[in-house]
């Protein structure tokens, strides 16, 4: 009998010890999908975003970053919960969220200060609503730069692109730009674009120089024109079911820990310059446009923007109208 009591005491002691040493919640390992990888500076921003999240909550033990070159596939995996987090531009998100292709309307912004003000006060609140409808939560909005035009030939004159086969994204704004130039638009995922350039299926496309210079396309398309026609934000988001597992306190802490909107811009554009140098060092040619040359491109595109807006969905028009209202508000300040 005494022996039985001793066993009972021992079992109680082990159980008590286990309650003291095991955390009150189970830590999770999350996964994040990204189309960025070193030496692209976007991969550094991915790591900083992950570090901010891990520093703000103990509920997530680690976040494993997975390179997924097909952004549309990656975004669907986050929506379905196969990945916990992701990051992409509106060009990549257009298939899942057609409304936010508005953010890639060509020649939308006058300057960086205007853009940041409108994003912080008008765009980001609407992005939260749009993403929530598909089970995602916006974490942060950062810099993805301006698109320029890459070609397998000297295309600094937009007339040279008329009737040429061009790679376009799923974004209506991307198609508007190329249709305005009289080009033949061929929609392709980015990973398929590199081989399409090599085989001559397409001869041009659009990307920021910092990203383009790190891709296989830089070896085939040796010409890059700084049209700066489309600006893209880089949007970090998390699956809502994963997010809901965090306490409200942790959710607030994570959002407060995220880098401020466009706080990465200065480093991003400095990296742009470095990537541009590496592109020319490897035999590439850059074309920097003066005001008159840039206007020659814009004059072909801007007259068609009104029609694009008219054909947008109600959600897209709502976002566009919010942007225009924000620009007026900024000007009045």
From TrEMBL:
Classification via InterPro entries: DctP_fam, TRAP_DctP_sf
Top-rank lineage group of the source organism: Bacteria
Keywords: Signal
Signal peptide: 1-26
Keyword Signal: yes
NCBIfam families: TRAP_S1 (NF037995)
Name of the protein described by the UniProt record: TRAP transporter substrate-binding protein DctP
Species this chain originates from: Aquamicrobium zhengzhouense
Source lineage: Bacteria, Pseudomonadati, Pseudomonadota, Alphaproteobacteria, Hyphomicrobiales
């Amino acid at each position: 009998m005494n022996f039985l009591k001793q066993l009972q005491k021992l079992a109680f002691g082990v159980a008590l010890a286990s309650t003291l040493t095991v955390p009150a919640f189970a830590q999770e390992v999350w996964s994040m999908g990204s189309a960025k990888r070193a030496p692209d500076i976007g991969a550094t921003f991915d790591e900083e975003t992950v570090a901010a999240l891990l520093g703000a909550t103990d509920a997530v033990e680690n976040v494993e970053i997975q390179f997924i070159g097909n952004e549309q596939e990656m975004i669907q995996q986050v929506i379905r919960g196969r990945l916990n987090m992701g990051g992409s531009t509106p060009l990549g998100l257009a298939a899942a969220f057609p409304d936010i292709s508005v953010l890639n309307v060509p020649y939308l912004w006058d300057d960086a200060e205007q853009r940041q003000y409108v994003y912080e006060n008008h765009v980001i609140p609407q992005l939260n609503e749009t993403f929530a409808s598909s089970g995602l939560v916006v974490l942060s909005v950062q810099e993805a730069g301006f698109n320029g035009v890459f070609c397998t030939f000297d295309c600094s004159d937009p007339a040279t692109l008329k009737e040429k086969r061009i790679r376009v994204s799923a974004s209506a704004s991307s198609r508007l730009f190329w249709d305005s130039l009289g080009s033949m638009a061929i929609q392709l995922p980015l990973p398929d674009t590199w081989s399409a350039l090599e085989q001559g299926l397409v001869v041009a496309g659009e990307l920021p120089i910092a990203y383009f210079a790190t891709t296989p396309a830089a070896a085939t398309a040796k010409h890059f024109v700084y049209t700066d026609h489309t600006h893209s934000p880089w949007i970090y988001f998390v699956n809502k079911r994963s997010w809901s597992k965090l306490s409200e306190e942790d959710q607030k802490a994570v959002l407060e820990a995220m880098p401020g909107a466009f706080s990465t811009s200065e480093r991003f554009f400095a990296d742009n310059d470095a990537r541009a140098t590496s592109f020319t060092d490897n035999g590439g040619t850059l074309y920097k446009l003066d005001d008159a040359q840039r206007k020659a491109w814009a004059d072909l595109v801007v007259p068609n923007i009104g029609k694009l807006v008219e054909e947008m969905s109600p959600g897209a028009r709502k976002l566009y109208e919010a942007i225009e209202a924000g620009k007026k508000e900024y000007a009045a300040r």
